[in-house]
Amino acid sequence: MSSKFDSNAATLSRFVMSQTNDHDLVILLNALAISCKLITSAVQRAGVAKLYGLAGEVNSTGDDQKKLDVLSNDMMINALIHSGVCSILVSEENEEPIVVPPAYSGKFCVAFDPLDGSSNIDCNVSVGTIFSVYERKPGSHGSVDDLLRSGAHCICAGYVVYSSAVELVFTFRGGDVHGFCLDSTIGEFVHTREKMMFPADGGKRIYSCNEGNAVHWDAPIQEAVEYFKTAEQPYTARYVGSMVADIHRTILYGGIYLYPADAKAKKGKLRLLYEGIPMAMIIEQAGGIASTGMFEGKIQRVLDLTPNEIHAKCPIIMGGKRDVQVVYDQYAKHGVNV
Ligand code: P6P
User: Fold this and answer.
1) Which of 10, 123, 166, 170 has its CA 20 to 30 A from that of 215?
2) What's 189's domain CATH number?
3) DSSP of 286-312
4) Is the CB of 208 under 6 A from ligand 1?
């Protein structure tokens, strides 16, 4: 009978160490993991510690900052600065980039949303952390320019979903997508999912979007969602309102997540550097498609976009090939080259 204890726990650190000779990267992922463990503690004790409610400030997105937004942001910034391997940080919660003091400066540049979906936090709905990692350009001491590059230059990306379980999903550029569940008995993220992939047959027919915006969508998006509702094999609607939860379900079960550009938000709502690019890398490397839908006159791949500023927005159409193709077919009916 196998023991309940694993004498050979496959932790995140060990996984990263097995995938790279760059020990600074191992240090970085450890710092990210520590900050997400701290965020886990804060999120799970929010009610007891009276951390619900507003902090009284507004973030770069114009959202009212929650107390947990501010706390989670401080946890990530401090962990990354003191890792000694970062030189510039970009957070959704900070209008300006954070320049790491020279004494702690290193080669990585990290963009993150420390607590994505935090409008859900006071009612205990799942929230998440999303991050993308770049390396300084040769000769750079770390500046915003190191981050204002397309997803082709992103070296790794990940998210953490704080839900019934806490799970970190991570991938290196060009690599497989792996899942690590937080084992609270040892305080470590333990490798639980090898090579996460969309279901080969497209999986469950689930569409995920905020239909409250439907009147503002362009016709192809409206027609695609109408198709999802009326197809011979009808789809189910699932929308948590936390991108991390919706994307995590989409990869594991199948389906499509849409936050398109629309008449009132020509660039969509989500942020390219710390939502679009990291999620697009994960989605593509899990066998899906990460598109902008119609954006600036053409259908684009999210990873091909270059942010012109650290809080640049991008439309998002992400999901399995079967379901994204439904959107593409509608654009094609309107004469759009896909
Ligand atoms: P809406 C949360 O604010 C977020 O950035 C994503 O996590 C989520 O998918 C989306 O915005 C929800 O936006 O407009 O539907 O509330």
Assistant:
1) 123
2) 3.30.540.10
3) TT-EEEEEEETTEEEEGGG---SSTT-
4) no
Sequential DSSP letters for 194-230: SS----TT-BS-EEE--GGGGGGS-HHHHHHHHHHHH
Is 119 touching ligand 1 by the criterion CB < 6 Å? yes
63 is catalytic: yes
Taking CA atoms only, the protein residue closest to ligand 1 atom 15 is: 210
Distance 190 CA to ligand 1 centre (A): 28
Number of domains forming the structure of the chain: 2
Last residue within a domain, chosen from 150, 167, 193: 193
Mean pLDDT by 10 residues, the chain (338 residues): 75 94 97 98 90 78 82 97 98 97 97 94 94 97 96 98 97 98 95 96 97 97 98 96 98 98 96 98 98 96 98 98 98 95
Domain that holds residue 255: 206-334
Is residue 57 annotated as a catalytic residue, yes or no? Answer: no
Residues 210 and 237 in one domain: yes
Q: What is the ipTM of this complex?
A: 0.98
> Are 35 and 134 found together in one domain?
yes
**Distance separating alpha carbons of residues 96 and 94, to the nearest angstrom:** 5
Say if residue 37 is in the same domain as residue 164. yes
